[in-house]
Amino acid sequence: MPFKKFQYLPKQIFLKFFIQQTLVIVVSILLLSFFSHIFLANGLKHAQTAAEIEYAYSAAFLFLIISSCFIVSIVSLWMGLKLVWPLGRILVKARSILKNEYTSMQNAVIEPENNDDEWQDLESTLHSINKDIRNKERSLSREREEIETLVSGTTQAVVAVESNGDIMFFNSQFALIFEIPQSGAKRLSDIIRDQIILKTFRHTLEFGSPNTEQISIQTNTDHSQAIYNLSTSPLKNDEGKIYGVIGMFYDITELKRTEQVRIDFVANVSHELRTPLTSIKGYAQTLREDLQNNIDALKLLSPIEKNTDRLIALVNDLLSLSSLESGSELNKQSVRLLELSQRVLGNFQNQISAKKHKVTLNCQSDVLFADRSKIEQVLTNLLENAIKYIPEGGTIQIDWIHEGNQTILKIRDNGPGIPKEQHTRIFERFFRVDSARNREQGGTGLGLAIVKHIVLRHGGKISVNSELGNGTEFICEFPESTS
Fold first, then answer.
1. Domains of the chain
2. pLDDT tier at 93 (50, 70, 90 boundaries)?
3. How many helices (H) and strands (E) does the chain have?
4. Between the CA atoms of 51, 54, 56 and 59, what dihedral angle is there, to the nearest 10 degrees?
5. Of 373, 263, 376, 249, whose CA–CA distance to 326 is shortest?
6. Cross-sheet strand order for the sheet of 395-403
């Protein structure tokens, strides 16, 4: 095991140091021995007594010891300086790199010596590291400037917050909206009091997932309400640990105003159309009674009644959709699902019998806290579509299921099915899978759009499972609610 550590040994430095020190010490010892021998011989030459001989040997030995110590000290000092001098040069460069002063000191620091050893390799490596750091700093600085320019130039308000709530940066649009003072702000909670905004940031920080929330902020210019979509995303380091959150405020005030104008327009036009259509319908019924014996006139009257009924249905659907989009309050109460489903099926009994459909009702969930009329409309629209589009003798399965904390409505038929490429569009208003066939059967193209809005208003979601030729299944999920 200890021999494996020899891979870290700087062999060239070690061999150079060992050879130089060995040669110097061996040569020094030989010279000292030679001079000690001369010194001893000279002392013995004049010695007459045993005491004088002993003194000569002692003097020679003392000379050898003192000279050896002096020589070894000088050699050690010289070899030590040669060993640590390059280390000092490298330390100066390393400290200058650490303090970001290497570029300014580069000319002052003595250039590397032409030594082919590990000191030279280390010094060259430090130089390369410093060069790489400088290149990366320039690249990061350029990218930072580009990002700051992009963030400052965007019309959306942007703010980045650390995990402890301190603000990392924000753009001018954010400062304008929240009136941040020139001195800036330290914490997000110091400039924003809206709990919905703070909760959105905390949610993203805690769960690490993007979050979106619609908020209303009072403007400081005319004190009107501006509507924003707040989108937050987590900031993660290389290890995947969340260290902050970035939030973007999208101004959708004009979009909401335009949408409200459209909703109001549709509602007003629908209200205005309802009265003349009702009048036309009444006159058509009166004419039918007066022209019972005139077969040719009745043939001309039938299309008038049929198209009037279509227009009345369209107006009613538009009014329902406008009411849902305008955010009208839901009249929630306990709805007995079995009783509601049986009543809706009774309304379609004639159509079911005429097309010889087989309808199965399975009600595993008893009660749903929701708006009774809206849930009835969901079931009515989905069942009407199933009856209308499946061929004669088809089957329809209605299931009310309780799973976890939600009640699920599933309506499945064995009809022609819906192509997968149209699944994302079938809930759009006026979209028809088969336009010609739908118009022949009197559809308005708003039934599924109304169903979607009702489910969303109850806090649920709707989906479809279907393949061409294998029937269709609509799934409506309603969360449990007591208020």
1. 7-146 (no CATH), 154-251 (3.30.450.20), 257-325 (1.10.287.130), 332-479 (3.30.565.10)
2. confident
3. 14, 12
4. -120
5. 263
6. 358-363, 395-403, 406-413, 472-479, 461-466
Per the listing, tokens 């590990």 go with 118
Helix or strand run (H / E) with residue 73: helix 50-98
Do residues 449 and 462 make contact, with C-beta atoms less than 8 angstroms apart? no
For residue 10, pLDDT beyond 70: no
Max Cα distance, the chain (Å): 175
- Cβ–Cβ < 8 Å for 478, 409: yes
Q: What is the pLDDT of residue 1?
A: 46
Distance CA 415, CA 391 (A): 6
Radius of gyration over every alpha carbon of the chain, rounded to an integer in angstroms: 46
Distances (CA, A) of 266 to 144, 255, 288, 296: 49, 16, 32, 37
**Does residue 167 come out as left (phi exceeding 0), alpha (psi in the -120 to 50 range) or beta?**
beta
Give the whole-angstrom CA distance, residue 133 versus residue 100.
10
Structure token digits, residue 201: 């940031």
Cα–Cα distance, 201 to 168 (Å, whole number): 14
**pLDDT above 60 (res 4):** no
For 228-247, b/e burial (b = at least 16 CB within 10 A) is bbbbbebbeeeeeeeebbbb
| Token pair belonging to 133 | 């750091």
Terminal Cα distance for the chain, rounded:
73
Phi, psi of 221 (to 5 degrees): -80, -60
Q: Which two tokens stand for residue 15?
A: 């061999």
Chain center to CA of 149: 22
Cβ of 153: how many Cβ atoms within 10 Å?
10
DSSP conformation class of 445? S
Question: What type of residue is 244?
Answer: G
Cβ atoms 151, 170 nearer than 8 A: no
pLDDT digits (tens, 9 = 90+) for 38-49: 777 776 677 667
Asked which of 169-173, 185-189, 429-433 is least confident by mean pLDDT, the reply is: 429-433
- Residue 257: which H helix or E strand, with range? helix 253-290
Could you identify the residue written with the tokens 């329902």? 320
How far apart CA 243 and CA 208 sit, in angstroms, is 10
The amino acid present at 208, given as its one-letter code, is G
- Which range in 30-39, 55-64, 305-314, 346-355 is most confidently predicted, on average pLDDT? 346-355
Three-state DSSP state, 141: helix
CA-based nearest residue to 200, from 230, 227, 178: 230
Residues 405 and 480: beta-carbon distance below 8 Å = yes
Instruction: Tell how strand 358-363 and strand 395-403 pair up.
Output: parallel
Closest Cα partner for 388 from 317, 443, 430, 433? Answer: 443
